[in-house]
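Q: How would the structure tokens look for this protein?
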Amino acid sequence: MVTSSNSTIVQRVWNYCNVLRDDGVSYGDYLEQLTYLLFLKMDDENRNLLGKTSTIPVELSWQSLLPLHGAELETQYIKILTELGKGSGLVPVIFRKAQNRIQDPAKLRRLITLINGETWMGLDMDIKGEIYEELLEKNAQDTKSGAGQYFTPRELIKAIVDVMQPKPGDTICDPACGTGGFLLAAYNYIIEHYSPLEKDDLDRLVHEAFHGWEIVDNTARLCVMNLYLHGIGANGGTSPIHVGDALGKDPGLRFSMVLTNPPFGKKSSVAFVTEDGEDQKESLTIVRDDFWTSTSNKQLNFVQHVKTILDIHGRAAVVVPDNVLFEGGAGEVIRRKLLHECDVHTLLRLPTGLFYAQGVKANVLFFDKKPASETPWTKQLWIYDFRTNQNFTLKTKKLTRGILDDFVACYHPENRFDRTPTWSEAAPEGRWRVFNYDELISRDKANLDIFWLRDESLEDSSNLPAPEVLAQEIADDLEAALEQIRGVLSGLE
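A: Here is the predicted structure in token form.
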């Protein structure tokens, strides 16, 4: 949390963001410019205050901006953004395809003066990170920008990490890392539970333990900066974040833990114009030798990708939409293979209202990768229904970490093989229930979209979600039905 002694810094950062908003600069654009300038300032402090070496040439450094004004300042700033985006390593990831979004040199000068007035390296890591995290969340709330798709609720992430219990020796990956929420939460968990670490363990944690992939340049730079401000990747030449499509190929790397919320939305497609001048889209089917089956569905492909990049006995927690649990065709193939080759042991059904996209129905699927076996590795799937009769909003009823305490307790991370269901014939309202492998595999299409609680909204209209949420749910259900029909039709061709 930001302390009172540092609250003025946060407030100044926020206030200037609002000034630029009045000038037409979005939260996302402001975050980008803040990222560039903060990094330059902290690199300057590392060089001149702490005596550390820098990969940034003096002529492109923070000091080169300080004496300039007007057009000269703008020209030098653009030069820095262009030149530092070249090459490879951490610095080019932050500055890749960077552009100046502050068109008024006087406003740029003011922001530089604001940042220069603080000794940022003198701030606690938590303080620097808190400032940036608040800005990231504010940006996610700007629905017009679509930035919310990159922001997983931090309270949910904390609960997932609490049950996964990462350790100092883990290698942790998020193949759809967004702004780095999962990686950062895992880092904080390890620091909190295992400090003080030996120097070698700490160096490895900071420079080697974390890997992420992000396809969007702007989001990747926000992620790298977010991690950097918390000490991950600091003073190192290699970026923990790879910019590119994680689904493109098997990276060849394997990890002991994967924590991820892959992008939701429609199937992967490419737009093109026909000879007649009509706009059309063509689905992109991912074909990889390491996948169980080929499909254009991004979410199903991410499940397969996570299986690939896990070490044997590696553990995964993956946020997936409902269609991953029930979709036929490739979905059925993947679920049956997953149940056989991995230990799919836990499913958390999430309520709507947690994400910035309205009406999203999501789940967290927990599974461990296992060696080849003739017999299925999944013995039991434990399901926690956190969805039925639970309504949340991003403003009036926000999710808190405490609300997830019951799930964490039921999960029993200390020994997940010693669990106790809360559901029984005598307790039909229990949210924690276990299903055996034979029950799962015998369900139509190996459907894992399982629920059993009485839905109070069906009996009392006052319990219904907001109209816009209901509308989105109906649209999602219709879309899913259409996809199933298309799958049947394609099978008849």
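The chain is about 40% helix and 15% strand.

The two ends are 59 Å apart (CA to CA).

Upvote if useful.
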